[in-house]
Design goal:
It is a single chain. By secondary structure, this protein is mainly beta. Among the domains are: about 90 residues, Immunoglobulin-like, CATH 2.60.40.60; about 100 residues, Sandwich (Immunoglobulin-like), CATH 2.60.40.60; about 110 residues, Immunoglobulin-like, CATH 2.60.40.60; about 100 residues, Sandwich (Immunoglobulin-like); about 110 residues, Cadherins (Immunoglobulin-like), CATH 2.60.40.60. It is about 15% helix and about 35% strand. It contains 9 helices and 39 strands. Strands 32, 34, 37, 38 and 39 form a 5-stranded mixed beta sheet that branches. A 4-stranded mixed beta sheet has the order 1-7-6-3. Strand 11 and strand 12 form a beta hairpin. Helix 4 runs antiparallel to helix 8. The chain is elongated, with a radius of gyration of 68 Å. The chain starts with 13 loop residues before the first helix and ends with a helix.
């Protein structure tokens, strides 16, 4: 069995066709030389069991003929040509791309083949009996390879490109490497061998024909002269030969900046002016040393290197690092110095070490600053004043002489005044022309120890020019207040207190503040020195102790004592005062706690609390009420009628507004009702007069009036007893009720 290949009409593929024929002919036809040199016929007889010999088919891509492309022919040794064998083709593209004549075994391509889409197809073939469909041979596999033709041009997949190269670069400096891809088969012919060339961009740049590296081909290209370049690069296959396909791309190349240019001031002399009233930090003006470079290569640093204004003015760089800002460093005064000269240097901050030979990268300019005269307010000879003055200074005493002058050349007259909000109580006055500050009221340190006065100075010819200064007046202390006792004016002594015992320690106060501190002395008033009850001991620490001279105290004998004490200070002139102490005699328990200081107060054990006392009193009150109710009930059992109805019937008052009616008056009332009030309610209403309605006001009803009086009397006295025990007065409301 064997296979044959026939490619009619394809001249370009003659050699592959021949190879295909040689490849796919049955081995029995080609012969199989053996080691023993057996003839070909015996080799054919020995290989009857192997009827298929498979290898590869080679087909050119991009066939554009009208008829299906003939690929080759399959033939089995068992095929006698009588049509009993049927050839079957399966695998990739079988039926859609490739077809086989099942009788002859001819294979055709019915679709256009493109190697760049698919470079080979794997197919399987089998010979079967047409009648029984029984396989005559096992299924075998073969490959159809698509041979390449130059049908794809090189492509720059990432184009167009952007690249940057520093200005002033040397010749041969690499800029960018380009790569073009060709979809053709690089292993077959020159279809995919690419060569690069430059179409536009010379003489500034060149490209390596093999690697595609773009390089600088012109030295000293200056960014300040030309910054952007457009280069067109071509890639051609077939090794660049005639007939090859080509693709192009664009490379936009930008020269990056380097610091190759020194700065230069746009003026050699700057004229500026500033008012003398400008505060420190005020901007005077701006200068600029221009630089052809950009970015960090144009950033500047400015400094004042000389001139008579180096200490008066300062210079700094603005946030863009391009301009120099001149500011005021010290206060200006036109009368002292009307102008200044500055020598300013501007220098690049970023230098290229390889380009220092192009330097220096600095420049110098002169700045002339004129100070403008401004009408300034008066100027005091001191920023603030401090004065100390005794509080006993006489009215009209000169506190301080303040002085202010007009700093301008005109030297206008100055007038003085006090800002009234700083001296609302008008303790001071200032002489309008001389500036003498004096008192107009007496000072009192204890009332106000500091006075902060604001003095105003105003130019007479220009009232808008006003300045102020603070005058702090401290009022010094003078011993003009006596010491006195503010606390402990009332104290107590227990009845069981013995002689020589301290009952209280007193302390004096003095509003004065002597520099050496307070030193008080205590003594009894002359009229109390020889009293037999109490004495005083000076503790020499600004305190004094009150002691008893005897024992046996009794509040029933005398409940209150009075003791005058004299307190003196230690300053000159000496000031003293007398304070009267009130001493109460009180009943105390064994621990010394006061129980009562009143001679009429009841004495109860200290162990009974207020709550317990109230509970006891409430129980007594309830018992009394119950007793009174029981007595009342017993009284009612003995009498058949209420005392109020029987005994007080004659006290009923009959009132009517009508004249006497004679017999009708006697018929209007039943006299029996006078004797029996119970029957008065049963009279028939027809017997009453219709022209009047009597109103009977009873003074008492069903509860005896005396019962109420007794209960209220007991309740009020219980409350009074409770309040007396607690040291409280009888409430006014209960007094009125009582």
């Amino acid at each position: 069995m064997g296979v044959g290949l026939h490619r009619p009409g394809v001249v370009g593929a003659l050699l592959p066709a021949v190879l295909g024929v040689l490849t796919f002919l049955p081995l029995g036809l080609l012969g199989n030389p053996s080691e023993g040199g057996e003839p070909a016929g015996s080799a054919l007889l020995q290989r009857v069991k192997r009827g298929w010999v498979w290898n590869q088919f080679f087909v050119l891509e991009e066939y554009t003929g009208l008829e299906p492309l003939y690929i080759g022919k399959l033939h089995s040794d068992m095929d006698k040509g009588d049509g009993s064998i049927k050839y079957i083709l399966t695998g990739e593209g079988a039926g859609s791309t490739f077809t086989i004549d099942d009788s002859t075994g001819d294979i055709h391509a019915i679709q256009r083949l493109d190697r760049e889409v698919k470079s080979q197809y794997v197919l399987r073939a089998q010979a079967r009996n047409r009648l029984t469909d029984r396989p005559l041979e096992p299924e075998s596999e073969f490959i159809v390879k698509i041979q390449d033709i130059n049908d794809n041009e090189p492509r720059f997949l990432d184009g167009p490109y952007r690249a940057t190269v520093p200005e002033m670069s040397k010749i041969g400096t690499s800029v960018i490497q380009l790569t073009a891809t060709d979809a053709d088969d690089p292993t077959y012919g020159n279809s995919a061998r690419v060569v690069y060339s430059i179409l536009d961009g010379q003489p500034y740049f060149s490209v390596d024909a093999k690697t595609g590296v773009v390089r600088v081909s012109l030295a000293d290209m200056d960014r300040e002269t030309r910054e952007d370049y457009t280069v067109v690069i071509q890639a051609k296959d077939m090794g660049g030969q005639l007939g090859g396909l080509a693709g192009t791309t664009t490379v936009n190349i930008t020269l990056s900046d380097i610091n190759d240019n020194p700065p230069m001031f746009d003026q050699r002399l700057y004229q500026m002016s500033v008012p003398e009233s400008a505060p420190v930090g005020s901007v005077v003006g701006r200068i600029w040393a221009k630089d052809k470079d950009i970015g960090v290569n144009a950033e500047m640093r400015y400094s004042i290197i000389d001139g008579d204004g180096r200490d008066t003015f300062d210079i700094s760089t603005d946030p863009t690092n391009l301009f120099g800002i001149i500011t005021v460093k010290k206060s200006l005064n036109f009368e002292e110095k009307p102008s200044y000269t500055l020598k300013v240097e501007g220098a690049n901050t970023h230098l290229d070490a390889g380009l220092r030979h192009r330097g220096p990268f600095t420049d110098v300019t002169i700045v002339h600053v004129s100070v403008e005269d401004v009408d300034e307010p008066p100027l005091f000879d001191a920023p603030a004043y401090y004065v100390e003055l005794k509080e006993d200074a006489e009215v009209g005493t000169v506190v301080k002489n303040v002085s202010a002058r007009d700093p301008d050349a005109a030297n206008n007259t100055v007038r003085y005044s006090i800002e009234r909000s700083s001296d609302p109580e008008k303790y001071f006055y200032i002489e309008i022309t001389s500036g003498s500050l004096m008192t107009v009221r007496s000072l009192d340190r204890e009332e106000n120890s500091w006075h902060n006065i604001t003095v105003l100075a105003m130019e007479m010819n220009n009232p808008t020019q006003i300045s102020s200064v603070s005058v702090a007046v401290r009022v010094l202390d003078v011993n003009d207040n006596p010491p006195s006792l503010t606390d402990y004016l009332e104290m107590s002594v227990c009845e069981q207190t013995k002689a020589g015992m301290v009952i209280q320690t007193v302390t004096a106060v003095d509003p004065d503040e002597p520099r050496g501190g307070q030193h008080f002395s205590y003594s009894l008033a002359p009229e109390a020195v020889n009293n037999p009850n109490f004495t005083l001991r000076d503790n020499q620490d600004n305190t004094a102790s009150i002691l008893t001279r005897r024992g046996g105290w009794s509040k029933h004998d005398q409940s209150v004592f009075y003791l005058p004490i004299v307190i003196s200070d230690g300053e000159q002139p000496v000031k003293s005062s007398t304070s009267l102490l009130t001493i109460y005699v009180c009943s105390c328990n064994h621990e010394g706690y006061i129980m009562s200081c009143s001679a009429e107060a009841y004495s109860l054990p200290a162990s009974i609390s207020r709550g317990a006392l109230i509970a006891i009193l409430a129980c007594i009150f309830v018992l009394l009420v119950m007793i009174l109710l029981m007595l009342s009930l017993r009284t009612h059992r003995k009498k058949p009628y209420l005392c109020d109805e029987e005994e007080n019937v004659h006290e009923n008052i009959v009132r009517y507004d009508d004249e006497g009616g004679g017999e009708e008056d006697t018929e209007a009332f039943d006299i029996a009702a006078m004797w029996n009030p119970r029957e008065a309610h049963h009279h028939h209403p027809s017997k009453l007069r219709q022209d009047m309605l009597p109103e009977i006001e009873s003074l008492s009803r069903y509860v005896p009036q005396a019962c109420y009086c007794v209960i209220l009397f007991i309740f009020f006295h219980i409350l009074q007893f409770s309040n007396c025990f607690n040291g409280k007065e009888w409430p006014n409301e209960f007094k009125e009720v009582e």
